[in-house]
Amino acid sequence: TTEPSIMTVQWAPISEPVLVGRAIVLTGSGPAFVSVIMRQDVARISMRRALQMAHIVSLDDPSVDRLVVSLARETR
Predict the structure, then answer these.
(1) How far are the Cα atoms of 4, 12, 36, 43, 46 from residue 76, in angstroms, in the given order?
(2) Among candidates 15, 7, 18, 17, which has minimal Cα distance to 54?
(3) Cβ-based burial of 38 (10 A; exposed 0-12, middle 13-18, buried ≥19)
(4) Nearest C-alpha neighbor of 4 from the set 54, 76, 75
(5) What is the pLDDT along the chain (76 residues), one digit of tens a residue?
(6) Does the predicted TM-score (pTM) go above 0.85?
(7) Which DSSP state fits 41?
(8) Which position among 38, 59, 67, 71 has the lowest Cβ density within 10 Å, counted as fewest Cβ atoms?
(9) Backbone angles phi, psi at 10, to 5 degrees
């Protein structure tokens, strides 16, 4: 599976509505512990669909939101 099995998030202490936290993803080689950053999407999607859309991204990818990159670097 590639979607998170367990996720815990809380509102980031910033003015933007952003959730930050940790997740456990069960993989073929065992559990992986990863950081989670979620921004509100304009489209109305269910929580289940949001979890299915979760994926690993490179912080160097120019298509990744700059606020997400900044928060990810802070949580390292």
Answers:
(1) 19, 15, 11, 29, 28
(2) 7
(3) middle
(4) 54
(5) 556 678 888 998 888 888 889 888 888 888 888 888 888 776 788 878 877 777 778 889 999 889 888 888 887 6
(6) no
(7) -
(8) 59
(9) -145, 160
DSSP string, 59-75: TT-TTS-HHHHHHHHHT
Q: Which residue has the tokens 């940790």?
A: 22
Distance CA 3, CA 23 (A): 10
18-27/30-39 β-pairing: antiparallel
CA angle 40, 17, 69 (to 5 degrees): 80
